[in-house]
Design a protein that fits this description.
With 445 residues, the chain is mainly alpha-helical. The protein has helices at 31-48, 57-68, 75-80, 84-103, 110-119, 122-132, 137-169, 186-204, 213-233, 236-253, 259-278, 281-295, 306-323, 334-345, 348-352, 360-368, 370-390, 393-405, 415-444; strands at 11-12, 15-19, 23-24, 70-71.
């Protein structure tokens, strides 16, 4: 990770992470104090995301308020001057939010609708707030390092709790499953771990990282500990996300002149991950059940196995969407429509558990129609394609993790998912655009 200034904004000497070209509106704060609060709010949000969603709210509120009440004169002109991929990536989430507002016009369950709108407000304000900050690259890089530290702390807490419970009871089942994620939803925590692995890998291959064997071994330890905890959690989608990130890492770092070393390291990584997965009965059983259930031609409406239950929720949501393919049921009516469909089709487990679709794509399409689905796909696919073009592991990892995870999780239906997505997706897009601009300047010299 090379550290360089944003080319068009002179740095603030007192604060090397945020530039000085800004005007404030409505907040009578000393600029140095305001910049420090905003910067540390971003660091705090990144640190607390893997620990608990409630700890993230205050830092994000401070970041949004301080950013949107301090606007640079040239902000709109700066946005218009950015490449099309950047502009579409940054507006996709706000458009998705406005579609939820629009969906209130034809929803019947207004209480649920407004609750959903309020839950998703970060999708509007965070991309705007993060773009409004005149970042320097070093400030953005430190945010990802703060997140990595937060993941490290959360892993220490989870490992300590699991070992303590096992020590007291002798029950090895306490070392697997949801206990690996603590108080955070298992699927979301698996995403946090995979992203931490990607960040550590990016730092490891960076020419400007801290020198010394101790730092290298610290990053390797974080990667190993996160991988073991991910496998112990039994998260199938987390495992697939990790495999995808490892494939990207191989493709982006492959050097034909050192192909023997690359193949050796890749082979050892595959063998180590394979042994870890196959030696874990819980993960191996879940993968086998997934293959059996998903390959079954018929849906067992009385099954309680997680993969089959997901098939029921997906089938029910698809039926709801096909009734209103363009505009959907309305922002607040999706769950009511789903419960009716579950009951009509005899889907016992989803009906008794009042389950949502367990797929953000299907849920968005069924609730708000095809345009909501398209806005989500644009938000994930454009950064992913650009990352593949630029060999950008950080942006590629975030985009791929979100693209894949939303197949079987509704990340935008809980704060733990909304905070992660609306915070890190705009940040990696901004960082990639900054690097792209710097590369253009260097080519022109």
């Amino acid at each position: 990770m090379e550290v360089c200034a944003r080319p068009f904004n002179p740095p603030n000497e007192k604060n090397p992470s945020i530039s000085d070209e800004a005007l404030t509106f409505g907040l009578d704060l000393n600029k140095e104090i305001r910049d420090r609060i905003r910067l540390w709010s971003a660091y705090s949000a990144a640190f607390f995301i893997p620990l608990h969603p409630k700890l993230v709210s205050l830092p994000l509120i401070l970041l949004i308020v301080l950013s949107l009440t301090e606007l640079r004169k040239s902000l709109w002109d700066e946005f218009k001057g950015r490449p099309m991929w950047f502009k579409l990536s940054m507006v996709a989430l706000p458009i998705y939010f406005f579609l939820h507002l629009l969906g209130m016009l034809w929803t019947d369950n207004l209480a649920e609708g407004w609750l959903d709108v309020s839950r998703k407000m970060n999708l509007l304000f965070l991309p705007l707030a993060l773009f409004a900050v005149p970042w320097k690259r070093i400030g953005l890089v430190r945010i990802f390092k703060a997140y990595l530290i937060g993941v490290g702390v959360s892993m220490l807490v989870n490992y300590a709790r699991m070992i303590s419970m096992y020590w007291e009871t002798g029950d090895s089942s306490l070392l697997i499953g949801r206990n690996a994620a603590g108080s955070i939803h298992l699927g979301y925590y698996a995403i946090y771990l995979v992203f931490a692995i990607a960040i550590a890998a990016v730092i490891l291959k960076s020419k400007n990282r801290l020198k010394g064997k101790w730092f290298t071994w610290l990053l390797v330890t974080i990667i190993a500990a996160a991988t073991v905890l991910l496998v112990f959690s039994g998260s199938k989608m987390g495992l697939f996300a990790l495999i995808g990130v490892l494939i990207m890492l191989f493709l982006f770092t492959f050097n034909p002149q050192k192909w023997k070393s690359a193949i050796l390291v890749s082979s050892l990584t595959v063998i180590a991950l394979g042994v870890l997965v196959l030696s874990n009965d819980y993960m191996r059983t879940r993968l086998a059940e997934m293959v059996i259930q998903l390959s079954s031609e018929e849906i067992d409406s009385n099954s309680y196995e997680s993969s089959m239950v997901r098939r029921m929720t997906w089938d029910g949501t698809l039926k709801v969407w096909l009734k209103h393919p363009v505009i959907g049921t309305g922002t607040g009516d999706i769950q009511d429509a789903l419960m009716e469909t579950y009951e009509e089709n005899g889907y016992t487990a989803p009906y008794l558990k009042n389950m949502d679709p367990h797929s953000q794509y299907l849920q968005s399409a069924a609730a708000l129609g095809v345009f909501a689905l398209l806005s989500l796909l644009i938000a994930f696919l454009l950064p992913l394609f650009k990352a593949l073009e630029r060999r950008d592991l950080l942006m590629g990892s975030v985009a791929f993790i979100l693209l894949l995870s939303n197949l079987s999780e509704g990340l935008l239906e809980r704060q733990a998912g909304i905070q992660f997505l609306s915070f890190f997706l705009p940040l990696v897009v901004i960082l990639a655009s900054m690097d792209e601009k710097q590369e253009e300047v260097q080519r022109a010299l």
